User: Which sequence fits this backbone?
């Protein structure tokens, strides 16, 4: 639904139909999450040209100009702290070439968590003062959340901020001030978790802090001064790159890639080459008493990639071999994530360990995985049947979802029409209050408006045509009345009202 909405927004702005799209995903997304994102794009009526890792997109946006003047390879650390997730990636950047060396991340760490801490703080303060627990009241908590979000943003620019909610609970107002230092203390451990991810990422990339040439800030939460300070401290006072609006850097990079794939844009854009890596290791489960993970594609392997592993039989005259496919970093598969499974059958009988079976893991540019196996003296083959459970949707499933999306869109249109009629009625009611009108005139206008209000209340389900009919009828009535009222109601108001229906 979000993607369909984005498509609509872009189409309205560009005044043309949008078919192709590049969608960004967190670097930490696994195979099924990527596939689900692609499916969602299809359901939204888009052709997904590429999925792009968000840090890569940000680096394209940030580093693009610099690398055209400097041909030496550089190590870039992308630190993306958004609303819900924290992603750290190390990229090697050459001329027009971006390669993700390693990624580390936390899928549940971001701005919302900082808000939660602030909210808890306020709830405790309110309780201390009024002996009332407001956590059970959703509306109350919602308004407090909005105030805390605003206060958090203000604290990025000033050392103090107010948190003020009138009538927070019943008639009780809430009004407090919070300092930046207090905010930092409330979130100390969370901020530390963010910066710890840097060590992990650099460790995986086998790169020392001193070898990092630039640190890029991405994501709205990197506006928090303490985060910037921690980053700067980590890198021995290095200047941070924050030239691009942190909320837009990712979209900016995706737009460059989209232009590149559509053969648009300037020469630099056209020369762009992107190399992504697998975020987690992929492999086959092998029975050794317990099921152990035999890694075929190690974590952080550049994609697209095709890698093979060699397998064999465990028993004499074994004619079939079972291949469970996992993703994860544990040596024991029970801690990893089963992606799918298939069995290679019809292998020529032979003593154990004789049959040679080659399995190939093929990952395309979107990070989507296909596994195949071939072996035995007769060379039987199984073009893999990875269980599609979490992966590709069937054509029928996609169709059902496309229809559902169309239905949501229709419901949305109905709601918009309904709201526009409600607005229209409001305008009529306001007009009926003009001082120069006689009482019978006011009465007629109000009656016409009230009739529509009653209609709206009794017709919760109505077609767009039916709603528009109400609007036209009301407009006709009002116009008839307005003829008699020229000079009393400002001409502009009458004109606006008429235009809305015409
Ligand atoms: N001035 C500011 N100070 C602190 N935080 C801010 C500021 N401006 C925005 N934020 C926070 O940035 C977050 C949104 O950032 P962004 O748009 O990068 O997130 P996202 O990409 O939607 O989320 P994610 O990457 O986690 O999926 C919100 O939590 C918001 O509160
Ligand atoms: Mg983000």
Assistant:
């Amino acid at each position: 639904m979000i993607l369909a909405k984005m498509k609509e927004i872009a189409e309205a702005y560009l005044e043309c139909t949008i078919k192709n799209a590049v969608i960004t995903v967190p670097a930490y997304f696994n195979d099924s999450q990527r596939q689900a994102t692609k499916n969602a794009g299809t359901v939204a009526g888009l052709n997904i040209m590429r999925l792009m890792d968000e840090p890569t997109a940000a680096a394209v946006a940030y580093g693009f100009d610099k690398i055209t003047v400097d041909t030496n390879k550089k190590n870039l650390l992308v630190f993306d702290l958004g609303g819900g997730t924290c992603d750290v990636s190390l990229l090697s950047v050459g001329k027009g070439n971006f390669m993700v060396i390693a990624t580390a991340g936390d899928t549940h760490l971001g701005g919302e968590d900082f808000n939660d801490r602030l909210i808890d703080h306020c709830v405790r303060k309110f309780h201390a003062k009024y002996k009332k627990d407001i956590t059970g009241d959703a509306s109350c908590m919602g308004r407090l959340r909005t105030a805390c979000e605003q206060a958090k943003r203000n604290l990025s620019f000033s050392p103090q901020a107010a948190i003020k909610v009138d009538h927070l609970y019943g008639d009780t107002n809430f009004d407090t001030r919070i300092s930046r230092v207090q905010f930092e203390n409330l979130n100390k451990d969370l901020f530390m978790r963010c910066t710890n991810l840097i060590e992990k990422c650099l460790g995986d990339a086998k790169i020392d802090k001193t070898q990092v040439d630039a640190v890029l800030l991405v994501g709205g939460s990197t506006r928090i001064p303490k985060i910037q300070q921690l980053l700067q401290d980590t890198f021995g006072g290095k200047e941070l790159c924050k030239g691009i609006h942190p909320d837009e850097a990712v979209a900016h990079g995706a737009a460059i890639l989209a232009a590149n794939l559509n053969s648009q844009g300037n020469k630099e854009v056209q020369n762009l080459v992107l190399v992504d890596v697998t975020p987690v290791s992929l492999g086959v489960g092998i029975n050794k008493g317990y099921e152990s993970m035999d890694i075929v594609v190690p974590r952080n392997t550049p994609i697209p990639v095709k890698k093979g592993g060699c397998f064999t039989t465990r028993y004499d005259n074994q004619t079939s071999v079972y291949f469970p496919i996992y993703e994860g970093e544990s040596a024991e598969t029970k801690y990893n994530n089963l992606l799918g499974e298939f069995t290679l059958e019809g292998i020529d009988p032979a003593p154990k360990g004789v049959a040679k079976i080659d399995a190939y893991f093929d990952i395309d540019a979107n990070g989507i995985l296909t596994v195949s196996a071939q072996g035995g003296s007769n060379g039987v083959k199984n073009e893999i049947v990875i269980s599609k459970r979490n992966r590709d949707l069937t054509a029928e499933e996609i169709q059902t979802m496309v229809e559902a999306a169309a239905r949501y869109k229709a419901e949305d249109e109905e709601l918009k029409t309904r709201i526009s009629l409600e607005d229209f009625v409001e305008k009529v009611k306001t007009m009926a209050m003009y001082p120069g009108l006689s009482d019978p005139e006011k009465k007629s206008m109000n009656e016409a408006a009230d009739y529509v209000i009653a209609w709206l209340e009794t017709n919760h389900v109505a077609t767009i045509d039916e709603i528009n009919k109400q609007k036209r009828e009301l407009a006709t009535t009002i116009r008839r009345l307005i003829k008699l009222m020229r000079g009393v109601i400002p001409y502009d108001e009458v004109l606006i009202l008429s235009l809305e229906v015409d």
